[in-house]
């Protein structure tokens, strides 16, 4: 009498040999074997030109791909050292929902950083607040050469976009960082 494990092993071996025999018999036609088969129109290229999918002819320089928000990325504070420098030595202004810390940076641009802690809410809420703050600051013209850190406090989660806009504008004007119309005109004429 054969034990159940041996029967199972024999059945698996038999199935494996049947599959191998089927694979040997299988004949897969090449891509151009069927004379009635039509060619794909995108595979046909104009005579004398070699183009890739982008439509740029061979030998031509491709246009540089610009990363979305590339101009905005150089205006962001990204390093931990910059955040620490601002939090320890920057001048600050505060409201119930936001804290604004600033410090001169001796660069030809002003840079922003956003800090939204876990007390504000889950990741979705925090990212929403950061997106809204980024948009608000993007719309403001700041004096050049400043690093600005915007720290969100817990009550900001219940604030609307309009309320955040008013608070950020008020804090930036208290800090003296908003560019006035007369400064814009004098900068354009220079």
Could you characterize the architecture of this molecule?
The chain is α+β, with helices and mostly antiparallel strands and 190 residues long. The chain has a domain at 75-176: Ribosomal Protein S5, domain 2. Helices cover 40% and strands 13% of the residues. It is built from 6 helices and 4 strands, in the order αααβββαβαα. The chain has helices spanning 4-25, 70-73, 80-89, 123-139, 161-174, 181-189; strands at 91-94, 98-104, 111-116, 146-152. A 4-stranded mixed β-sheet has the order 1-2-4-3, sandwiched between helices. A hairpin with a 3-residue loop joins strand 1 and strand 2 (98-104). Helix 4 (123-139) packs across helix 5.
